[in-house]
UniProtKB/TrEMBL annotation:
Name assigned to this protein: Delta-aminolevulinic acid dehydratase
Record: residues binding Mg(2+): 250
Species of provenance: Ereboglobus luteus
Active site: 208 (schiff-base intermediate with substrate), 265 (schiff-base intermediate with substrate)
NCBIfam families in alphabetical order: PRK09283.1
Keyword terms: Heme biosynthesis, Lyase, Magnesium, Metal-binding, Porphyrin biosynthesis
Subunit comment: Homooctamer.
Any Pfam family hit: ALAD
First-tier enzyme category under EC: lyase
GO BP field: protoporphyrinogen IX biosynthetic process
Record's GO cellular component terms: cytosol
Length: 341
C-alpha cells in the first residue's frame, strides 16, 4: 500500500530522477556499466613441485598452485568465461641471486607453467610478468649497480627483452612488463619481432605506482626481501602516488613504444588515473586491482564490518566505470561464478 501523502505539499520539479529507479526492470534498462566474466584477467601464483596448494595468509582464498593444479584452476576459470590469466611464479629462495639469473633459465618454472596451460587450454589468453623481482635475492625489479644503490635501467632492459623472447617461445599470448624501466616496451617489441614473435602482444604496466598496496603480493611471491625492510622501496622506478600528469605521460610513452594494451595499477585508489588515461588513448586499458585492495575487503569482512559479496562486486564495477576495459583481480573467479549464475 502506497502511503498516503500527509499533506498537499508538492514540489514542482522539472526532473525527477527517481522515476528511473522505481523498480529492477527500469534500473536494468538504464544501467550504464555491466560486468561480465570476459572483463577479468585472473592473476595466479605457481610453485614448483607436486605439493598441495599453499594458502597465502594475507590473501584469503588465494593459493599458490603446482603446475598440475594450476592447469585445473585455469580450466575452471575458462569454463566460467574468464578469458585470461596472468601467471606469477614463486621461486625457491635458494635459486635467487642478485642478478636474477634464473629468469633466463629455459626450464624456468613459469615457462613450464605456460607450456602446460597453453597445451591444455589453447584458447585461454596467458600473460606473464616481465620483471626480475620474483628472481632477484634483493626483490627489486631490475639489476643493481655494483654499490647496490641504484637499479640500473638499460642493463635491466637488456635482460627483460631476452626474458620476453623466452616467454614468447613458451607460448604466452601477452608479455606484461611490470618493471617500470624506461624504454623497455620498445626494446621488448624489437626483440620479439626480431625472433619472429610479431603476434605476441604487450600489455604494459604503464602507469604503475610505488604503492603500499602490493604488500600481500610480495608475501605471495616472496619478493619482500628476507633481510631488512619488509616493503621494498621501489620509488626510483615506480610512479609517485602524488603524480597525475606523470602517470598520463608514462601511458603516452608506452603507447608510442608499441604497447598493445596499457595499464593502471593499483586500480581502486587510482580511479582518477584510469579515467585520465582512458581519455588520452584509444588503446585498450587494463587496471590491476592489487593484492592490498583484495586483502582490505577480506579483512573488513572478517571483522564483520563490510559485506564481502557486495563490496567485491562494487569495487570491480567502479574500476570498469572509471574506464578500464579489463580488470586484473583476485576476485575474478568468485565474481565470474556469480555473474554467470
Ligand atoms: C612485480 C609485480 C608486483 C605486482 C605485480 N607485478 C609487485 C611489485 O611491483 O612489487 C603487484 C600485484 C599485487 O599487489 O597484486 N613487478
Amino acid at each position: 500500500m502506497p502511503s498516503k501523502p500527509s499533506s498537499g505539499f508538492k514540489l514542482d520539479l522539472p526532473a525527477r530522477p527517481r522515476r528511473l529507479r522505481r523498480n529492477a526492470s527500469v534500473r536494468a534498462l538504464v544501467e550504464e556499466t555491466v560486468l561480465r566474466p570476459a572483463d577479468f584477467i585472473a592473476p595466479l601464483f605457481v610453485i614448483d613441485g607436486k605439493g598441495a596448494p599453499e594458502p597465502i595468509a594475507s590473501m584469503p582464498g588465494v593459493a599458490r598452485f603446482n603446475v598440475a593444479d594450476l592447469v585445473r584452476e585455469c580450466r575452471a576459470l575458462w569454463k566460467l568465461g574468464v578469458p585470461a590469466v596472468a601467471l606469477f611464479p614463486k621461486i625457491d629462495a635458494r635459486l635467487k641471486d642478485p642478478s636474477g639469473s634464473i629468469a633466463l633459465d629455459e626450464d624456468a618454472l613459469v615457462l613450464r607453467a605456460v607450456r602446460a596451460v597453453k597445451k591444455a587450454l589453447p584458447g585461454l589468453v596467458v600473460m606473464t610478468d616481465i620483471a626480475l623481482d620474483p628472481y632477484t635475492s634483493h626483490g627489486h625489479d631490475g639489476l643493481l649497480s655494483d654499490d647496490g644503490r641504484e637499479v640500473l635501467n638499460d642493463a635491466t632492459v637488456e635482460v627483460l627483452a631476452k626474458m620476453a623472447v623466452l616467454h614468447a617461445r613458451a607460448g604466452v599470448d601477452f608479455v606484461a612488463p611490470s618493471d617500470m624501466m624506461d624504454g623497455r616496451i620498445a626494446a621488448i617489441r624489437k626483440a620479439l619481432d626480431a625472433e619472429g614473435f610479431d603476434q605476441t602482444a604487450i600489455m604494459a604496466y604503464s602507469s604503475k605506482f610505488a604503492s603500499a598496496y602490493y604488500g600481500p603480493f610480495r608475501d605471495a611471491v616472496g619478493s619482500a626481501k628476507a633481510a631488512g625492510t619488509s616493503l621494498l622501496d621501489k620509488r626510483t622506478y615506480q610512479l609517485n602516488p602524488a603524480n597525475r600528469r606523470e602517470a598520463i605521460a608514462e601511458a603516452i610513452i608506452d603507447e608510442g613504444e608499441g604497447a598493445d594494451i596499457l595499464m593502471v595499477k593499483p586500480a581502486g585508489p587510482y580511479l582518477d588515473i584510469i579515467r585520465d588515461v582512458r581519455e588520452v588513448t584509444r588503446k585498450p586499458l587494463a587496471a590491476y586491482q592489487v593484492s592490498g585492495e583484495y586483502a582490505q575487503l577480506h579483512a573488513a569482512a572478517k571483522l564483520g564490518w563490510l559485506d564481502l559479496e557486495r563490496t567485491s562486486m562494487e569495487s570491480v564495477l567502479a574500476i570498469k566505470r572509471a574506464g578500464a576495459d579489463m580488470i586484473l583481480t583476485y576476485f575474478a573467479k568468485t565474481l565470474a561464478v556469480r555473474l554467470k549464475a
